[in-house]
Amino acid sequence: MSDVEVSVVLPAYNEEETLERTVAVTLETLASFLPAGSFEVIVAEDGCDDRTPEIASRLADEDDRVRHLHSDDRLGRGGALGFAFDRAAGETLVYFDTDLATDMRHLEELVESVRSGEYDLATGSRWLPGNRAERPPERAVSSLGYNSLVRLFLRSDLQDHQCGFKAFDRVAFETLRDAVEDEHWFWDTEMLVRAQRRGFRVREFPVEWEPRGDTKVDLVRDVFGMGSQILRTWWQLSVSPRITRRVSAAAGSVLVTLALAVAVVVVFDIEAVLDAIEGADRGLLALSGLVYLVSWPLRGLRYRDILDRLGFASDTWFLTGAIFISQTGNLVFPARLGDGVRAYVVKARRGVPYPSGFASLAVERVFDLLAITVLAGTVLVGLVATG
Predict the structure, then answer these.
(1) Which of 190, 195, 369, 384 stands 20 to 30 A from 223 (CA)?
(2) Which value, to the nearest 10 degrees, does the dihedral of the CA atoms of residues 117, 123, 125, 130 take?
(3) In this structure, which long-range contacts are made by residues 295-301, counting pairs with CB atoms below 8 Å and at least 24 apart in sequence?
(4) Residues that are catalytic
(5) Which residues are registered as beta bridge partners of 281?
């Protein structure tokens, strides 16, 4: 049985210039307040393309307190941390950024907050009174705005969700791990928000923090990406639990009624439509109605095959209903926003992730274009042939 109580994970992506010093400082700091043999340092090397893997392997060979976990593929910040924590030996799980931007004198406070059993999670904060954080103005503004949105939409009581200086009790981590969907920069925030919702004890304390080197965060790409994750988590925690089958049925009825009202009042001249129906061939009218009705399950079959190719099985009638809901939404909402409704439905009811859901819609549009092209070509050939 392992005597390791504390596992410190250093997420490393192309850290050849800082890794050796970071490991040395970490070992020295841990040894200053923990018994020998009670801690380990894990370098979670995440698909690096510099000398980081070689350095990490050498450090692990030289010191049995150091372990090296390698990944050929980029797992992302959250993915790399989850991968390492799953393989860690300690009951107290810690991580911080390898640039040591947070003053290491706070490490004992971080570790002991959880190791003592007083808290389930602990996190440093660059926004609480008593902190000292030097950051460029653009990063300060984006951080303040981001944390404000998290508190507003996700009802978090914390001031700083993204400080890379955190500790978890293993039981809390394993309870939260499967619920957390993001594997990149939003992972920290989602862990903290879900921990609060589950009633875990979370401690936030001020730290001294100074950025070192260039940030790996793309202020445009990652901020917008995390904004979408805030909305996704808000929907899951605050909206989705309220959507029962009864609410879904009521909302669907309202949507259909609204779509028909819009179609009648705005899109169509109802008198002209009635006149056209009255003067139409009843047989052809019945045939066209039959073809239209049959087209719905055919669309369901096609969509089932598309999802099946993506690795997600579902039944035809459910998917036919999902298509009907999305097409009805497209009558009401601009820019085919009804397709987003379908992505939500298959995510909520069949567990299809949003990226796969939207990818399936894109494939469906390609088939639509091919079908239109074939029909147009057939009509054109017919017109040419008949003069």
Answers:
(1) 195
(2) 20
(3) 296/320, 296/323, 296/324, 299/323
(4) 188
(5) none
**Whole-number pLDDT of residue 194:** 97
Residue appearing with tokens 């047989």: 283
Give residue for tokens 């445009």.
220
Contacts of 103 (CB under 8 A, 6+ apart): 207, 208, 209, 210
Rounded to whole angstroms, the Cα distance separating 375 from 45 reads: 53
Statement: 6-240 belongs to CATH 3.90.550.10: yes
Lowest mean pLDDT among 7-21, 143-157, 256-270: 256-270
Q: Report pLDDT digits (tens) over 249-290.
A: 676 667 667 766 766 666 667 777 777 778 888 888 888 889
Show Cβ contacts of residue 92 under 8 Å, excluding neighbours closer than 6 positions: 5, 6, 7, 111, 114, 115, 167, 168, 169, 170
What are the residue boundaries of the structural domains of the chain, listed by start? 6-240, 243-386
Distance (Å, rounded) from C-alpha 247 to C-alpha 228?
25
What is the end-to-end Cα distance of the chain in Å, rounded? 88
Judge whether 213 and 133 are in contact, CB under 8 Å: no
Mean pLDDT of 135-157: 86
Burial class (CB in 10 A: 0-12, 13-18, 19+), 118: exposed
Tell me the per-residue pLDDT of 315-340, one tens digit each, with 9 for 90 and over: 888 888 888 888 877 766 666 777 88
